[in-house]
Amino acid sequence: MTDTPPPLGPLSQTPPDAPQETKRFPCEQCGADYRFDPKAGTLTCSHCGHIQVLQEEVDLGSPLRELDFKAALAQQLPEAEMEITRVTSCPNCAAQVEFSPEVHALECPFCATPVVADTGESRHIKPKGVIPFQLEERAAHEAMSDWLGALWFAPNGLQAYARKGRAMEGIYVPFWTYDADSKSRYSGQRGTTYYVTETVMVDGKTEQRQVAKIRWTPVSGRVRRFFDDVLVLASKSLPKRYTDALEPWDLSALAPYQPQFLAGFRAEAYAVDLEEGFREAQVHMDRVIERDVRFDIGGDRQRIAQIDTQLSDITFKHVLLPVWLAAYKYRGKTYRFVVNGQSGRVQGERPYSAWKIAAAVALGLAAVGLAAYFGSQG
User: Fold this and answer.
1) Each residue of 283-306: pLDDT tens digit?
2) Residues 42, 51: Cα–Cα separation, whole Å
3) How many CA atoms lie within 13 A of 3 on its CB side?
4) CB 360: neighbour CB atoms within 10 A?
5) Beta strands 205-233 and 255-256, pairing class
6) Could you tell me which residues are beta bridge partners of residue 15?
7) Cα angle 15-18-22, degrees, rounded to a multiple of 5
8) Cα 1 vs. chain centroid, distance in angstroms?
9) C-alpha–C-alpha distance, residues 375 and 371, integer Å
10) What distance in Å separates the CA atoms of residue 122 and residue 141, rounded to the nearest whole number?
11) Are 88 and 97 in contact (CB under 8 A)?
12) Among 180, 189, 183, which residue's Cα sits nearest to residue 222?
């Protein structure tokens, strides 16, 4: 078991908010909004088409400086690493939406419900890195339509509705990454297989068989592993099973956070605080350490009695990863689909067609009946 960190102080905790904000950058020629172009990697004006190249120091894959985990728990992060945002909660799905000062109402990107601005503010850790969108909306829409078309038992009308439906929303979803050096001591048993000859009765006759047995030997030892960028979802606005299924992410493409990457997109602040995220990271670390212990024990089988793990040099960073989101209302119900804005991988909710299921069952029963009939004729 890994050590549990001390409780997170009140100033470092994130309120139960997951704010979202659309970053706007005015075009230097016409004043309309720039939008980050995933294909060109530049800012492009949505009105006149003017292109602005990003700052030279914004390089994809640049090393990002990690933050000290213990310093964050002790509320000792520099003020430059913190920011304050204005948030409110969606009355339908409880997603937390961030408003810029000049905006007082918008539509929830998760369920398409109108949301009116509140006056609440939250203080949280700034993003350290971002993977810019690499997939354009059209490509994301095609990926989603292809995914829907491949689903068995989905209503025919859903795919057609999705193709003709509303635009997809580009959202930067918050994640934590954790680094840690681990040293683990273990005790257990190594199992070695050996065989013995036993005499058994089969149909009134004696036979000799080789029977496998396990010889257990007490063992103990140490394993060590450095964990790099253990990724933990820091959002509660989307089902975790879908965002987890968007993996893998190529974190080598992380760039130092610059607001220009967010031009024309929404960015969600974290709702899973630093300590809660680390507890999930520890679960992942424990599984990997157990696997390392089993490998170190060796033999044919392993029994683990105890693992004592010490974690040190724990660091973290808050990063934003790109997700295309579509929320469709189909026959009175809302269905959400997410597309990895880096790789195009799709996951989401789906309705089922009752008549398609009934038809499949009927065809299955008919096939069984025909097989039985021809079998009896033979």
Assistant:
1) 999 999 999 999 999 999 999 999
2) 7
3) 14
4) 13
5) unpaired
6) none
7) 130
8) 25
9) 6
10) 33
11) yes
12) 183
In contact, 257 and 81? CB cutoff 8 Å: no
How far lies 300's CA from each of 72, 193, 248, 286, in Å?
44, 6, 32, 22
CB 72 within 8 A of CB 125: yes
Non-local CB neighbours of 161 within 8 Å, separated by 6+ positions = 328, 330
Cβ atoms of residues 141 and 168 within 8 Å: yes
List, for residues 72-127, the tens digit of each pLDDT value: 999 889 888 888 776 666 777 666 666 655 454 566 666 666 766 565 667 789 99
Rounded-to-integer distance, Cα 348 and Cα 328, Å: 11
Amino acid present at 178: Y
Within a 10 A sphere around the Cβ of 362, how many other Cβ atoms? Answer: 10
Alpha-carbon gap, residue 33 to 46, rounded angstroms: 6
Q: Degrees (nearest 5) of the Cα angle 162, 166, 167?
A: 105
Residues 148-193: tens digit of each pLDDT: 766 554 555 565 655 665 678 898 999 999 999 999 999 999 999 9
Helices and strands, counts by H and E, the chain: 6, 18
Question: Which 3-state string (H, E, C) describes 38-99?
Answer: CCCCEEEECCCCCEECCCCCCCCCCCCCCEEHHHHHCCCCCHHHEEEEEEEECCCCCCEEEC
**Nearest by Cα to 124 from 90, 143, 162, 98:** 98
| Residue 205 burial class via C-beta count within 10 angstroms: exposed 0-12, middle 13-18, buried 19 and up | exposed
> Domain spans of the chain?
20-377
- Structure-token pair, residue 197: 């000859």
Q: CA of 40: how far to CAs of 33, 37, 53, 295, 342, in Å?
A: 17, 6, 9, 46, 14
Specify the pLDDT at position 142.
84
Yes or no: say if 111 and 91 are a contact pair by the CB < 8 Å rule.
no
CA 221 remoteness from chain centre: 34
d(CA 180, CA 68): 11
Instruction: Tell me the two tokens of residue 154.
Output: 């989905």
Average pLDDT over residues 180-207: 91
Q: Strand, helix or coil at 11? A: coil
Give the tens place of pLDDT for each residue, 57-82: 445 545 788 999 999 999 889 888 88
Rounded Cα distance, 138 and 170, in Å: 12
